[in-house]
Amino acid sequence: MAHEGEHTGSTPMFAIFLLSMYSLFLIPYTLWRLGGGGSDEAERVKTWHSKKGGEKKGESWAKRLRATFSGRMMLAWLAWALLIWFVKHSVGGIENFDPFAILNVPVDASDADIKKAYRKLSLQYHPDKNPDPKAHQYFATYIAKAYKSLTDEVSKENYKKYGHPDGPQAMSVSVALPEWFFSKDKQTAPLILLVLLFGGIVAPLGIAAWYLMGTQKYVGPNQLMEETIQLFLDPRYGVKPSQALGKIPDTLVCAFEFIQLPTPKEQGPALDELKRMVTRLHPDLKDAKAAFWKRRTSVLKVHMLLLAHLAREEIPAALQRDLHFLLTKGLPMLQEMLALATAPRVKPGYGWLAPTVGCIEMMQCMVQAVPLAAKKAVHVGKSAESAAALLQLPHFDDGVLRKLQKRRVKTLPELQLLTAEERLEALQAAGLSAAQVEDVETMLSAMPTVWVSAQCSVEVDGEVDDGLVLECDIVTCTVQVMLTRPSHMVSGFDPDSIKGKAALAYAPQYPVPKEERWYFLLADPSVNATLGITQANLLQAEAIGARYASNWSAKHTNPAVAAMKGEGGDKARAAGGSSSGANPLLAGTKFDPFGANGEEALDSSLEELGQTFEIKFYAPFSAGKYDLQLLCMPDSWVGCDKVVPIRLKVEARTRADREGRGRRGVGLQRSAESEQLVNGRAGSDAGSDAAHSGGEEEEEEDYDSDELGTEESGSEGEEGAESDEE
Predict the structure, then answer these.
(1) How far apart, in whole angstroms, are the C-alpha atoms of residue 231 and residue 254?
(2) Does residue 186 or residue 489 have the better pLDDT?
(3) Cα separation of 438 and 444, whole Å?
(4) How far is CA 620 from CA 66, 69, 76, 631, in A?
(5) Is the peptide bond before 348 cis (omega within 30 degrees of 0)?
(6) Burial of 132 by CB count in 10 Å (0-12 exposed, 13-18 middle, 19+ buried)?
(7) In a 3-state reduction of DSSP, which class is residue 451?
(8) What is the CA radius of gyration of the chain?
(9) Which parts of the sequence belong to the J domain (predicted)?
(10) What distance in Å separates the CA atoms of residue 420 and residue 428, rounded to the nearest whole number?
(11) What element of type H or E holds 675?
(12) Cα–Cα distance for residue pair 59/68, rounded to 1 Å
């Protein structure tokens, strides 16, 4: 035993310490790999798609186990097993002092039996019989003390009280370090000092500094680098007032994360192949002297990867990791660009509409891999009639579109409104196999349709005033939304199965699972202004829509009910469908759940017809009639957006209104800043258009051609006119 207060090293204790620290890393890391984290990108895409394709759970787990326990992982667990073995055999020899076990006698043994056992062991271990020093030590330490503790009265009493014949023992402290670390040899002192210096101070500080340097880069919004936010604000590269969809990639690829993306020499052949692919897709880029090719290699690589992904081209294996980085980081970057576009710049606190819409449309194209050229110059609310809406479907390309046009199917609503038999015939005639048609049907069944009702009002002294809006009032736009999908109309669908935090988007071209988000913008296209914006999760709206669709289907597909009413087919046709079985709950029909023909599907289980939320904004400065638009846009679907026209009448504020003696009786309580905005005396013009006039002129580049999806910024006025006609 060590003397009291003495500290010694312990190799077994050090092994236990290493085993504990190693287990804290290895076990969570293995569980993370089993959950799909850190696996190869191609394997992750395959696993995600296999879940959508209905792969059996057992097969999926078997593949995940094989992917997790690779060669390196097996070596890591082998090292863990060796540590377990060493700890077990090094610590297993430490036992409590038990005289009965040492003498090998029972607990109720007599004195004669104890003496007999002692004499027997003495013949084997006594120094006079066995010259081995270890035998001598074992005899003195264990056998003699065991005999004494069982025959001497004082030793017996000590053993009963303290568990040892010598009485209470001094405490021995062992440090979880190897025994050689506490050697008194002066020659080992420098080595011990170096181990303490580097192992205990330099190495931990170096690891901590490396970790902090890596994590501090992504401290901006959406876990982006601060340099990226600064670039997005730069007038040369950042978000501009008239920047529509065609110009959004020019800002996106300038993110600092992409600038720092390494381009090793091993990627040279893959980059050459990618360049040939991009020039084939965009012939105007064949000029080697074009400005497109004069940028930094990493930025050029990201831009080419983006164009190839949108065209659904096969990306070389050497660039798959970079493509995954582009897609997973691209959406947060677009969300930050969206936030910058909607930041208050136009009095009295409006954002820019063109880049706001462009960022959301860019999200749609990235998630579903749709070329920008197919999406350009298509107004929000009309995108379902564009080629892009069809190109998002699996296995669709320009050849399939041309063959469908021969059968007079030119838009997504026309394809959706076909019956299942008609759609099967049309798709097979377009060259799709039975399995490919099934993929198309799966995506069509998951495609959402939103039904929206909106109303603007002003709250005065806790009460809502629907009829009177004064200049620069704080207006509340109350939006009610219901979401339906064709899958809700399938026989046997359970509306109560819609649970969780958010719906996952069906995106076979996107590498990882993502939530389906919706953006609601209150816009004035005539002045390129975003009055207000909100982001919503429509899971509640979908649950209500599923119950609504179930009720509607039960009432209109039940032959007995239809015969009793005598109007089953007529109502379907009046709703915009057909008596042959087309689904009326689609955007291409004239059916409206919020209209007069929509209330009939309500029952006691539907307390509200939709999910409700609010958008607050400042009314315009000048009195007059304004044709506003509520733009409802998803980030994961092309052709599913919707435009709701809103007419807002703003009346001039009199002096009595400002003093609280006006037509409302009680004036609005505004802050000093609001009053300055109303009176046109804002403290700084930094947020106005004048302060950003330097960023309105976009540099004309050779690669900004119509083939890349460039849009004219003057199309917003036409958008408002077309929405009114709708």
Answers:
(1) 7
(2) 489
(3) 10
(4) 62, 63, 66, 18
(5) yes
(6) exposed
(7) strand
(8) 38
(9) 98-163
(10) 12
(11) helix 672-678
(12) 14
Strand partners, 534: 520
> For residues 481 and 538, is the Cβ–Cβ distance under 8 A?
yes
Residues in the chain: 726
Amino acid 189: pLDDT: 67
pTM over 0.85: no
Instruction: Please list the helix, strand and coil fractions of the chain in percent, rounded to the nearest 5, in that order.
Output: 55, 10, 35
Q: How far apart are CA 42 and CA 324, in angstroms?
A: 10
Q: Tokens at residue 93, please?
A: 């020899």
Q: Maximum CA pair distance of the chain?
A: 121
Q: How many angstroms separate the Cα of 269 from the Cα of each of 277, 317, 321, 487? A: 12, 11, 16, 45
| Residue 516 pLDDT | 94
Residue 315 and residue 373: Cα distance in Å, rounded? 20
Q: What residue has token string 């798609």?
A: 49
β-strands 624-634, 642-650 pairing: antiparallel
Comparing 396 with 589, the larger pLDDT belongs to: 396
Binning pLDDT at 50, 70 and 90, where does residue 218 land?
A: low
Amino acid letter for position 297: T
Task: Give the least confident one: 120-124, 195-199, 415-419, 653-657.
Answer: 195-199
> Is pLDDT above 70 for 300?
yes
Query: What pLDDT, on the 0 to 100 scale, is given for residue 244?
Result: 92
Report yes or no: 353 and 716 within 8 Å, Cβ to Cβ: yes
Residue 566 DSSP code: T
For residues 119 and 126, the answer to whether their CB atoms sit within 8 Å is no
Assign residue 463 a region: left if phi > 0, alpha if psi is -120 to 50, beta otherwise? beta
Q: What is the pLDDT of residues 75-134, one digit of tens each?
A: 888 888 888 888 777 765 545 667 778 888 887 778 888 888 888 888 888 888 888 888
Neighbours of 496 (CB within 10 A): 8
Least confident of 232-241, 283-292, 539-548, 692-701: 692-701
Asked whether the beta carbons of 106 and 112 are under 8 A apart, the reply is no
Spatial contact of 722 and 379, defined as CB atoms under 8 Å apart: yes
